[in-house]
Amino acid sequence: MSDKPAADSVDDAAPLPPGAAGTAPVLEDSTAEKSVSEDPSGWATEWAAGLPGRPGFLIRRLHQIHVALFAEECGGFNVTPVQYSIMSAAALQPGLDQNELAVAVGVDRTTLANVAARLEARGLVRRERTPKDRRLKRVFLTPEGQALLESMARPAARAHQRTIEALSGAERQAFLDSLTRLVLAGNAYGRAPLRMG
Amino acid sequence: MSDKPAADSVDDAAPLPPGAAGTAPVLEDSTAEKSVSEDPSGWATEWAAGLPGRPGFLIRRLHQIHVALFAEECGGFNVTPVQYSIMSAAALQPGLDQNELAVAVGVDRTTLANVAARLEARGLVRRERTPKDRRLKRVFLTPEGQALLESMARPAARAHQRTIEALSGAERQAFLDSLTRLVLAGNAYGRAPLRMG
DNA sequence: CACTAAAAGTCAGTATACTGACGATTTGGG
DNA sequence: CCCAAATCGTCAGTATACTGACTTTTAGTG
């Protein structure tokens, strides 16, 4: 990670001509690709026709990039993005049960339980059964967890900001708007929807 | 997955008012969030101030959604998005070694090796050492793998298309442009960069 | 009250993604 | 030629993400 280009040089670069890759972008099923990217304006045809022309591919890549940036900014805390999200939710709404936490964060209940258990093992959260409903486990942040959360606020925010800083202000906003639209539209797919009401 | 809203109703819905959640969006460190979303126009303040206001959070959610859509469209093939990408790359450039494949697809070399090994176990790819460089393993698609790839082309494309279909044509293009810009800008972060040249 | 259905959390299993380290092989420089 | 550095693939380990199934508990209905 120490060999990444300086932020300035990356930001200044016009969209790189990706066709120059020693490993050429992968071409395939151009007919299907055209239906996805009906207007290839602004990017090389080869790029659009290959793997990078697939939305899912780009989304996976950006997610990888974000996770790497988060690790760089928050590495010293040994907290992952999902752990941070779960702790954030637990801090704001102490006592949510695991399932409520899962839908607040958009994480599968199995994943939530696994992450919470590991956070509990680190003394960052506490999980309690309640006499009112013995099926539930309610989650509380410990003082140690709270302190960690607070000390991470800036680095975490920096990671998020760096993920999208290559866009200008208006583009950034438009991008986030679209991203939000897509997330809202597809929210019910999969096993980890966000609660909408 | 059978309880997802009809595509029409989701598409027609104006951006949902997310503040209505029984589990309220999580609020935190508003000062840092403001620096990320400097212009909150078009989305509720509560949404912007909470977890969904974090770019990385939305990116994770959209990735989850995409993977779920891919599973829905391609479930019958028992092929994941990453497997499909690797097979696509191997089909277009037969004989790339594993590392070349990893940088063509943007996958960590360890992940690539693991996925390739499982694909090989299924008879979909063949991995060969070469006398020219005994460190390498070159990857070839088998006839069975080729056939599977071809039969998956349309469903796979549909999954990608559905991931972004909530946006209009121009918005979609702008979104993909921005996504590409961000991927290119952050490409070197992490251990799985795409080869640029 | 009795019974069915639903919910919560857990379990075992599979897949992707990353980390640092390692042995074998190749490359590059003196 | 020799040796150090680099590269490739693998290894063991950790984390997230999902699947279907299961036991316990609660909710709902007749």
UniProtKB/TrEMBL annotation, chains A, B:
Entry's Gene Ontology molecular function annotations: DNA binding; DNA-binding transcription factor activity
One GO term of the biological process aspect: response to stress
Pfam families assigned to the protein according to its UniProt record, in alphabetical order: MarR_2 (PF12802)
Keyword annotations from UniProtKB, A to Z: DNA-binding, Transcription, Transcription regulation
UniProt keyword annotation of Ligase present: no
Residues covered by region (Disordered): 1-42
Signal peptide bounds: none
Name of the protein: MarR family transcriptional regulator
